[in-house]
From TrEMBL, chain A:
Signal sequence extent: 1-36
GO molecular-function terms, A-Z: hydrolase activity
Domain of life: Bacteria
Keywords linked to the UniProt accession: Hydrolase, Signal
InterPro entries the UniProt entry points to: Sortase, Sortase_dom-sf, Sortase_F
Keyword Hydrolase carried by entry: yes
Record region (Disordered): 38-71
Name the record gives this protein: Class F sortase
From TrEMBL, chain B:
UniProt keyword annotations, A-Z: Membrane, Signal, Transmembrane, Transmembrane helix
Source taxonomy: Bacteria, Bacillati, Actinomycetota, Actinomycetes, Catenulisporales
Annotated transmembrane regions: 247-267
Superkingdom of the source species: Bacteria
Signal peptide boundaries: 1-26
Pfam family, one: DUF4397
Domain DUF4397: 30-147
Name the record gives this protein: DUF4397 domain-containing protein
Length: 222, 275
């Protein structure tokens, strides 16, 4: 056969020693590049980016007076449940630390409701519930699975008076901590919504903290 | 903070319309509250010739009103003078600018004469979990100290001066004493200072007539947000670091093997060529 007859005239198909060395160096370089990239991995796609901030700018359907009146008789959140992710955690009221950071419960299996903001049922503003994604000493936290949330997922907040408030996820976004739109996320104004906060993104082992915050936005189910 | 007499009140006509429909943008209008601090004297407040606050009762606050910027002529008449044809108790003129938040207070001077004072309200954000308290001396009374939870928080306040402070949100007890004494002239009053709000307390009335009292106005929506959300310290949720490491190291090892094999063969061939 043609191929067969010509084959002996050709150089052997095995790689030459020099090309093996080049290929090896290339592989090592690729490995090094991949390792470097793992410090700044590609983020998972954000779902409905900007929804968390755009809602804060929208006018609530009712006046501020009615909003505060409603807030006054509302009960505090007592439990958070996201069945699709197997999340179920007790909720406690939280404020801020001495330096002004959100005082998230140190027990990573408990999440906190920002008590200076709206409660479920408020006619406007952001109900904020936050929890640790994990801790160095305690392992994965209550909100560890949250990064896998999908748009449309059902979220239920049960308040201390026994009422269940149902929400539907409309957005998921990761922000570098320095770029977190805190005013919008914690705003008592704008469309009535639930904002879930935890940490996410790459981890800085030197500082023991994550570089990003994960923000999940949900709206009340009518 | 205090501005010369005269405030601009309103085309309250527009006001009613504004309240009934969509609130105008805060940046395009002025926000005005009207405080009545003259005891025993219900009044009609005429603005640009219209009776916009008929039978306005002492010790109450009207508004906040969203008003277009402009010049407003205000005349306050006794409630019985519904036509506004008699002698006004107070007259004033005020310019309102877009975006400002003001309180117009009808009150007594320290000598007991009716007057109007316009205050520019501080609507800057307050830190998360805190509240702003403002005290305004609008009473016919001498200098006073304001005590909060028993401590003299503000001292030597005189009509029509004001003082303010940021406090942690919560309930406080406040009273007013004659400056430098423990003689209580107003209160004590319990104030629920909610986070992100500003509570403005007006001391009104007359010491001589024993009509001293307090009127409060609240501005909401000033709440600052927390400065950070520290929500993890374990690193377990960082994207796929362990998995990446394993295949990366495999790749590197394969590369090292190839490199070694290649170099070895090159050396061997070179040696053989020399031999």
């Amino acid at each position: 056969m043609f191929q067969r007859s010509s084959a002996p005239r050709r150089r052997p198909l095995r790689p030459t020693p020099g090309s093996a060395a080049v290929a090896g160096a290339a592989l090592i370089a690729a490995a090094l590049a991949a390792h470097a990239a793992s410090d700044h991995p590609t983020q998972p796609p954000s779902l409905n980016p900007g929804v968390a901030t755009s809602l804060a700018a929208q006018s609530p359907p009712t006046s501020a007076g009615r909003m505060s009146a409603a807030t006054g008789r509302l009960s505090r959140p007592d439990r958070l449940a996201i069945a699709s992710l197997g999340i179920g955690a007790p909720v406690v009221p939280i404020g801020v630390t001495a330096n002004g950071a959100l005082a998230i419960p140190s027990d990573i299996h408990t999440v906190g409701w920002y008590r200076y903001g709206p409660a479920p049922g408020a006619l406007a503003g952001s109900v904020v519930i936050a929890g640790h994604v994990d801790s160095a000493g305690q392992g994965p936290g209550a909100l560890f699975p949250l990064r896998a949330i999908t748009v449309g997922a059902a979220v239920t907040v049960t308040t201390a008076d026994g009422r269940a408030w149902h929400y539907r996820v409309i957005g998921r976004q990761e922000y570098p901590k320095a770029a977190l739109p805190l005013s919008a996320l914690f705003s008592p104004a704008g469309t009535s919504r639930l904002t879930l906060l935890t940490c996410g993104g790459p981890f800085n082992h030197h500082t023991g903290s994550y570089l990003d915050n994960l923000v999940v936005t949900a709206v009340p189910v009518p | 903070m205090r501005r010369p007499l005269s405030l601009a009140l309103t085309p309250l006509i527009a006001l009613a319309a504004a309240l009934a429909t969509t609130p105008a943008s805060a940046a395009m209008t002025a926000t005005v509250s009207v405080v009545h601090g003259i005891p025993k004297t219900p009044v009609n407040v005429f603005v640009n010739g219209k009776d916009l606050l008929p039978d306005f009762q002492p010790g109450t606050v009207a508004g906040p009103l969203s008003l277009p910027p402009g010049t407003y002529h205000i005349a306050v008449f006794p409630a019985a003078d519904t036509a506004g044809t008699g002698t006004p108790v107070i007259t004033a003129t005020e310019n309102l600018t877009a975006g400002e938040n003001a309180s117009l207070v009808a009150h007594l001077t320290s000598a007991g004469a009716p007057t109007l004072t316009a205050y520019a309200n501080d609507t800057s954000p307050v830190p998360a979990g805190q509240a702003r308290i403002v005290v305004r001396h609008d009473a016919a009374a001498p200098a006073v100290d304001v005590r909060v939870n028993g401590h003299a928080a503000f001292t030597g306040l005189t009509n029509p001066g004001q003082v303010s402070a940021l406090l942690p949100a919560g309930t406080v007890t406040a009273d007013v004493v004659l400056a430098g004494t423990s003689t209580v002239v107003i209160g004590p009053a319990t104030l629920n200072l909610q986070a992100g709000t500003e509570t403005i307390v007006y001391a009104i009335g007359s010491a001589t007539d024993k009509t001293l009292g307090l009127v409060t106005q609240t501005i909401t929506g000033l709440g600052g947000a927390p400065v950070a959300v520290p929500a993890g310290s374990g690193g377990l949720a960082a994207p796929a670091a362990p998995a990446t490491a394993s295949w990366v190291w495999g790749l590197a090892a394969a590369g090292a093997l190839l490199l070694f094999a290649g170099l070895f063969s090159t050396i061997r061939r070179t040696v053989r060529a020399r031999g």
